[in-house]
Each structure stands twice: as structure tokens, then as C-alpha cells.
Amino acid sequence: GANWVDEPVVRDKNLITSRKPSDLPKFNKAIIEALKA
């Protein structure tokens, strides 16, 4: 099963996701940080 989390960005190991289009700036930042690591 899955748990829905009401946050702009959620990271679970290598999976990074967001809720809606207005969250994309925070999502993009999380993706960039993950790629730097």
C-alpha cells in the first residue's frame, strides 16, 4: 500500500515526488540536490 502525504515534496529513498504543478519549484530543487549527491 501507499501513504499519501500532504507536502510539497516527498522523498522516499530514490523516489522524489510532489502533489501539484505549483509544487514544481520545490520539486525541481529536490531533484537537483539529489543529482548532486
What is the element layout, followed by pairings?
Blueprint (H helix, E strand, L loop, with lengths): L8 E4 L2 E4 L5 H13 L1
Antiparallel strand pairs: 1-2
Question: How would you describe this protein?
Answer:
The mean pLDDT is 95. This protein is of the alpha+beta class and 37 residues long. A two-stranded antiparallel ribbon has the order 1-2. A hairpin with a 2-residue loop joins strand 1 and strand 2. The chain is flat. The chain is built from one helix and two strands. The chain has one domain.
What letter string, H or E per element, gives the SSE order? EEH
Question: Oligomer, anyone?
Answer: single chain
Number of strands: 2
- Give the biggest beta sheet: 2 strands, antiparallel
Q: List the domain count as a whole number.
A: 1
Low-confidence stretches: none
What do the pLDDT scores average to? 95
Strand order of the largest sheet: 1-2
Helix percent band: 25-40%
Distinct helical segment count: 1
- What value does the Rg take, in angstroms? 10 Å
Tell me the overall shape.
flat
Strand content: 15-25%
Q: Span from first to last CA? A: 29 Å
- Give me the secondary-structure category: alpha+beta
Structural key phrases:
single chain, 37 residues, alpha+beta, 2 strands, 22% strand
